Every structure is written in structure tokens, then in C-alpha cells.
Amino acid sequence: MSVEYKVYRPKRILNKHKRPDHWFWTRYTAHPYIGCQHGCEYCYWRESKYCPYPDPEDFSRLIKVKINAPELLRKELSKVPVGVVGLGDYQPAEFRYRLSRQMLQVCLDLGFPVFVLEKSHNVLQDLELITAINDRARAVVSFSIIATPESPHYEHLKGFEPAVPMPPRRFEAMEQFAEAGILTGTSFMPILPGIYDDNENLKAVVRWTRDHGGAFVLAGGLTLSDKQKAYFLQQLARICPEKVPFYEHFYPQGSYGPPRSYWNRLGQKVAELCQKYGLSDRIPRPIIRGEKRAVNKRIAEHLAIKTYRLELAGERGYRIWAYRKAAWALDELEQDVRLIYERMGVKGLESIPSLGKKLAREVEQQIHREASERRSSAKCIETSERV
Q1: Rounded-to-integer distance, Cα 273 and Cα 265, Å
Q2: Which pTM was predicted?
Q3: pLDDT for 99-155, tens place per residue?
Q4: Domains (ranges, CATH) in the chain?
Q5: Category of 220 on φ-ψ map: left (φ > 0), alpha (ψ -120 to 50) or beta
Q6: Of 27, 309, 346, 354, which is most buried by a Cβ count within 10 Å?
């Protein structure tokens, strides 16, 4: 398939979010290309709100190149607080323009941590640069993988991911990042219902991640909307025609996805498998060494994980939102939460927006836990120095 590159100079590059995302922990994202030559048939970027092309097929054959992306990123990052930046786009266009590499260099120069979500093993070409970022700030590299050769439907994967390196190459790249000391793992998304959601494939993805040095498996489901839905069903009829009636029933008119209960069960299965193989089903939060509000961020991480657990358990919405808003409040708190607690005790914690009595007690427990872990760490260092 022929691909056309269209070079242009946008006026801005950085997407700034009100607060860190609780999936990838990104505060900012920046994309050097619009469109993707990998051409994954299920990609949500073909939705009308994301895709700039009337024809969803153009998403993989017309690539818009933001040629001034590195300069814009340097300018815009220099004006915002340090936070995790979502970067990386190692589709074939990167071999020609090298914009992802230049943007990573900007983050290294300015001391910003990065999160890279990648479909290709070609991200290895910048392993040294990402390692340097990890040494100065933090870096996380997550590989998007939805099946292993053990899947009963593995033969269909090339149909769904026509221009993507096969999973074994991605797992090999994961292992090299792990050996370099980079936090890495699998973004197991989107899991295709009725195709890659069987127990055999779920178990294999988690096990392969463990065997290749990954620390986490983050699971997510397939969403289908407007022209993306029509496009996907058309491709599904080509790849797995027997699955079309199932998808038409599972994704009824006007819906964005299957019932929430289905995703909850799927998330619980992945969580159980991760526990079995010694992995996390959430991405550990990258926190810069010496971060003044590190405790705030770690407690916010605890509350965000609790939010996810409540969602999987099918808890009532008000409980889920209570934890979510509490996590946001800790993320947005300018003062070290420990100082508030030292001066005013639990009453001080209750004065923080969105906490209240019950959640203030939970934050208090986390403060004590953080203090205990610091004391244990200090003792370990002291013992090691004596030896």
C-alpha cells in the first residue's frame, strides 16, 4: 500500500491535561505524526473525534508530519511544571523524520519523565536515550500486545495488525529494556471480545510478559464508535467472518462497548493472573528522584488503584467517585500532605477537598506506611554500609 507524507508546521504540539492520567500517569502528551502506518484495524484513532480524514482507510496511508514538533515541544515544556510526558511513535515514518527521537532528547534536556507506548520493537534504536532519561528523571516503556503465538486465533493477528512487527519481536525488545533497568511491561489493549479474551490467551500474555522482564500488564477493552465501528466490522468480515454476528450483538446500535460487567470480569481475570505470576495489573507510577511531593503522589496512586478495584468489583458509582476525587485532590495538593498531618492531625487531612473522615483515615494510614517504609529502607542502607 502506498503511503503519502504531508509535512506541515503546527502552532502547538503539547496536550496539557488538568491532572495526571491514572492509567499511564501522563500529565502531557505530544504526537509528532497524525495517522499511523501500522494500520491496526481496531484502532480507536479512526473515530470521528480523532481522525481528520473522512475515509478511515486514509488513517494508515496519509501521514501528516509535524516537522517542527521538537522545537515546539522545547518551547512549551519550558513553561509548564514537570510531569510525565507521553511520547513515542515508531511507525515507519520515524525512520525518515526522527521526530520521536528529537522529542525524547528535549525531555532529557529539560528533565521531564516520559511514558512510551509502543507497537514496534524499533523503539530499541533509542534505548540509550531512554536510559539516560530514566537516569535523570524516570522512563516507562509499555508494549501494546494483544496475543501470543499460543493464542488459538494467532493466525488472524496479522489481519488485525497488518504492518506491525509480530509479538515475539516486541517481547524481545521488552526484555532488552528490562535488562537496561527501564520499567517495562504490556499494554494488553484492546482485548478483542470472542477472539483474544479466552483464558488461554490471557494467561499466555501475562506469562510471556513475566518471562521477558515485564513488571505489569495493563488490560483494556475494545471500543467501537461511528465510522470506526463500521470500518472495523468491514475488516472483521474479511479476517474472521464468523465473528461478525457476535460483534453486532455485543456492540448494539448506539453503544460504545459491551456491558460494564463484561469488562469487570475481564479485568479481574487479568488481575488474578498478574498476582499469580508476580506482576502488577497497573503501571507503577514513575516519580522523579527527590520529588518534593513524592508522598502525595504515592498516596494518590494508592487511591487511584483503589478506584480501579472498586470499578472491577462493580461497586456503586458514588464510592468509586469518592476515591477518584480524593486521588485528584492529593495530586493537586501543593503542600506536602505530611506537613498538614504533623501540624493538624486527621482534622487537617479532613480539610483537604474531597477527603472527609473516612478517606482522611485512609490517607493517615498511608502516611504511616510511607514512614515505616522509609525507616526500613534507611536501616537496610545502614546495614549494607556497615558490611
Answers
A1: 12
A2: 0.94
A3: 999 999 999 999 999 999 999 999 999 999 999 999 999 999 999 999 999 999 999
A4: 4-276 (3.80.30.30), 294-386 (1.10.150.110)
A5: beta
A6: 27
